[in-house]
Specification:
about 230 residues, alpha/beta, Rossmann fold, five-stranded parallel beta sheet
């Protein structure tokens, strides 16, 4: 055991038992704490334990993995890598719209899968510790509080959800469509595009030293937004 994944809990949701068991064996050999679920019901039960990453098949006996991704993981945000035999561009786009962090098609190389897992976990470091720190910012996921230069900054519920979505996807371009699908208002309704514009602008005012030249919340023209850590 190399110990690369010490204390990293990974859930493998895959109904092909031989493949599931093989992935779990490979992950444990790398030092990860890996768990098997062969359907969505078992996956929900296993999510009673904090997971650092989820490998999720799309086609499962009791449902679509993308629906699970949208509905269940809102309660326990974790990076998700989709496993699927579907390799069309539209299938991949649907996966990313649902909120996955990466995508690997079957059949795949186990070493490549391990490398993808390591990359996704590296991107999520800091977030998994429930405290994010960069430059003059500190965000506490547990208490949902933001401080800038040591002073408390009040966030609305919608701003908190947007902030956490950005932080869970640091360095990744989030399309407007994906953001709109992942953040909800207090009544669990979709947020309108105009509301998103206003929320992004207000969040920039609260996190940026100069909102006109943002360091953290970057606009990627024609695509969406991306959170970048402050260079130091």
């Amino acid at each position: 055991m190399e110990g690369n994944g010490v204390e990293k809990h990974i859930l493998v949701v895959e109904d092909d038992r031989a493949l599931n068991d093989g992935i779990v064996f490979a992950l444990r050999r790398e030092g990860y704490l890996a768990y098997s679920a062969y359907n969505l019901r078992e996956a929900r039960e296993k999510l009673g334990k904090r997971m650092h990453l989820i490998l999720l098949d799309i086609n499962l006996p009791d449902g679509d993995g993308r629906d699970f991704l949208r509905n269940v993981l809102a309660e326990q945000p974790a990076p998700v890598l989709l496993l699927t035999a579907r390799d069309s561009e539209e299938d991949m786009m649907q996966g990313f719209r649902a909120g996955c962090d990466d995508y690997i098609t079957k059949p795949f190389s186990m070493p490549v899968l391990i490398m993808k897992i390591a990359a996704v976990l590296k991107r999520s470091e800091g977030v998994s510790r429930q405290i994010y720190v960069s430059g003059n910012l500190l965000y506490d996921f547990g208490n949902k509080t933001l401080t800038r230069r040591g002073e408390a900054v009040e966030l609305t519920a919608l701003e908190c959800r947007l902030m956490e979505l950005f932080l869970h996807n640091r360095g990744i371009v989030l399309t407007r469509e994906r953001i709109l699908e992942r953040i909800w208002d207090a009544e669990e309704r979709f947020v309108e595009s105009r509301t998103l514009n206003v929320t992004v602008r207000r969040l920039r005012l609260k996190v940026e030293e100069n909102p006109e030249e943002p360091v953290y919340i970057k606009t990627v023209f024609g695509m969406g937004y991306k959170w970048e850590d402050e260079s130091r």
